[in-house]
Amino acid sequence: MYLPTHFEETQTNVLHELIRSNPLGMLVTSDEKGLDANHIPFLIDAPNASAPYGTLRAHVARNNPVWQNQGEVLVVFQGEEAYISPAWYEEKKLNGAVVPTYNYAVVHARGKLRTVDQPEVLLGLLNALTTRFESDRKNPWQVSDAPRDYIENMMEMIVGIEIPITHITGKWKASQNKSTQNRINITNGLRSENTVASIAMANLMENQLFTTPTK
């Protein structure tokens, strides 16, 4: 990924938060047939001695050959994104020398994929995934709500995967290379559009503009 220094995000907690907020990752693999991509919801575990940048965990269908790829893989997570109109720049009023751009936040995580096939570990993964996605519901569904034999049969059709992250990169393209006034203009323009995507990007840009994280 092309990564100018002013767009680079290196704080592990910030990178993990994007993954938690946008858990559907694009798992990119390569084998003798070429490149492949699978879209999978992931959990992110905290860093430890063997995985200093954390561990991604998920499951896939046993019929999906992706779990047999034991080499290095790449997982891409897409966060906030929005089109930036040249109409919002100060230069538009002065000389018109402006062009559109697109702002976004992404995380790229790399590591070697390994499988999780022990029933008790796989069940723990399913419980963790369910808790993650059901926790905000009024009456959260639990794995134990389904008949045990049904869950056991379903577990035979899936394989757990883990990716201890060996390299993680974040790119927060949030107009950091523009003047303060232009960045304020852009956030105001995004808020005026009043879409979910534009408000999310405005929030991200304001956080980048008015805070100075410790890196």
Explain what you see.
The protein has helices spanning 12-21, 90-94, 119-134, 148-155, 180-193, 196-210; strands at 8-9, 24-31, 34-41, 43-45, 55-61, 72-84, 101-112, 114-116, 158-173. The protein is an alpha+beta fold. The model has no long low-confidence stretch (mean pLDDT 93). Strands 1, 2, 3, 4, 5, 6, 7, 8 and 9 form a 9-stranded antiparallel beta sheet that branches. It has one domain: Electron Transport, Fmn-binding Protein, Chain A (Pnp Oxidase, Chain A, Roll).
Q: How many beta-strand segments? A: 9
The CATH architecture is Roll
Distance between the first and last residues' Cα:
20 Å
> Major sheet: size, sense and barrel closure?
9 strands, antiparallel
Number of domains: 1
What is the assigned CATH homologous superfamily? Electron Transport, Fmn-binding Protein, Chain A
- How much is the radius of gyration in Å? 21 Å
User: Could you say which overall geometry the principal axes of the C-alpha atoms support?
Assistant: elongated
Write the layout of secondary structure elements.
Blueprint: E1 8-9, H1 12-21, E2 24-31, E3 34-41, E4 43-45, E5 55-61, E6 72-84, H2 90-94, E7 101-112, E8 114-116, H3 119-134, H4 148-155, E9 158-173, H5 180-193, H6 196-210
Antiparallel strand pairs: 1-9, 2-3, 2-6, 4-5, 5-9, 6-7, 7-9, 8-9
Helix pairs in contact: 5-6
Task: Explain briefly what this protein structure is.
This protein is 32% helix and 33% strand. By secondary structure, it is α+β, with helices and mostly antiparallel strands.
